[in-house]
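Section 5.1 Outputs to date
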Amino acid sequence: MTDRPILDVSGLTTKFHTQDGIVHAVNDVSFSLNPGEFLGVVGESGSGKSVTMMSLLRLIPMPPGEITDGTAMFDDQDLLSINGDELRKVRGGKIGFIFQDPMTSLNPVFTVGRQIEESLRLHKDMNSKEARARSTELLTMVGIPDADQRVTNFPHELSGGMRQRVMIAIALACSPKVIIADEPTTALDVTVQAQIIEIVRDLREKLDTAVIWITHDLGVIAGLADRVLVMYGGQIVEEAPVRDLYGRPEHPYTQGLLQSLPRLDQRGQELHSIEGQPPTMHVAPTGCSFAPRCPFVHERCIKEVPKLTEAAPEHRVACWWDTHKGEARNGG
């Protein structure tokens, strides 16, 4: 890895204008991604994980969505301000996106081969024969047998696991520098989940592609990620190397998530649950979004939004309370 990030996001803020008011989906999110790095992004449903990553490629519907602030530097370009033509060169060509549900993401009226070939013709200027050969090669690479025949299949003729493999093939078609995977194993059974994870892990090592893996399951990324972002209420509340996050979580929300995971060495013990409800995103944060559910909450948490600050080398947390020392952090 080099010292210079391949993707550097600063102050990303995304809102949705609805009949019920403004939804503050992503609030001042900043992070970086290094070349070849595997970055896990975790948090419960509605925490802003997917909207954050879709905002980077301006894939959210606008309106009702609106990116109101921030920059996302990639290849010396700000993805949030470049024109449509330049952005289309990045989408699929330099940054691949694996969506959560392949049945709704794949076009049902085109063969899977044609859908892979479309990206190759657009970004690699291949002719029909070259694109078909590359499509077959990609399907073989992601573990689809009889790839030369499968390229002629329509999405409905494939199983859920095979459709997700096709989505991975499309994302990899142009040898992108970054792949964003939005909970790609959610709708699959456990055996197929493991196969998809193994495919992505192997391809990342072979191609040295940086990966952002979005999930609500901390267990999935334990053996995958180099570094983890934990999101809650549209904000990053903790960022750390994967071993540090699991070995010494700093934020009460991260601690609650890890305590809720079943463990083989703690049989017979009840699983921990985080009391309370997720925050309503119709209200702009004026304090820590986790405060209403936090066992360590104090006055500053309610009045002031905590910023990410260093708790240890390469380990940042947005919390006014040091749970390990049992005292206020940063003079709070």
